[in-house]
Amino acid sequence: MKADNLSFLEFIGAGKRTFYIPVYQRNYDWKRMQCITLFRDIESIAVDENRNSHFLGTLVYVEGESTANFRQFIVIDGQQRLTSIMLLLKAILDSTLYRRIEN
């Protein structure tokens, strides 16, 4: 096993990675307060100009089947946090696209 210290953007691979949550993992179960706590933590990073890194927790994964275009990662631990962050990014994207359409 090897531990790496990656930025979130390095980890998600600029859209060149897919994340697979095996069926043996529990269902997504984070409640509103857990999401709010994580989102406030992320927000605190964005407003502090003196911080260039922040620990978001560990994520355990193994590399799965890959294609010429995508690398697959099987998430072993950290799927609740990863899913919450991806949902936040999707909401930000949707909000940005909606504002562009309105303008």
Tell me what the structure shows.
The chain is α+β, with helices and mostly antiparallel strands and 103 residues long. The chain has one domain. It contains three helices and three strands. It has a three-stranded mixed sheet, with no helix packed on it. A hairpin with a 7-residue loop joins strand 2 and strand 3. The longest helix is centred in the C-terminal third of the chain and has 24 residues. The radius of gyration is 15 Å and the shape is globular. 6% of the residues are buried.
Radius of gyration: 15 Å
Principal-axis shape equals globular
Order of strands in the sheet with most strands: 1-3-2
Strand content: 5-15%
Mean pLDDT: 86
Note the topology.
Elements: H1 8-12, E1 17-20, H2 32-47, E2 60-63, E3 71-77, H3 79-102
Features:
single chain, 103 residues, alpha+beta, three-stranded mixed β-sheet, 3 strands
Structure, briefly:
The protein has 103 residues and is of the alpha+beta class. The protein is built from 3 helices and 3 strands. The mean pLDDT is 86.
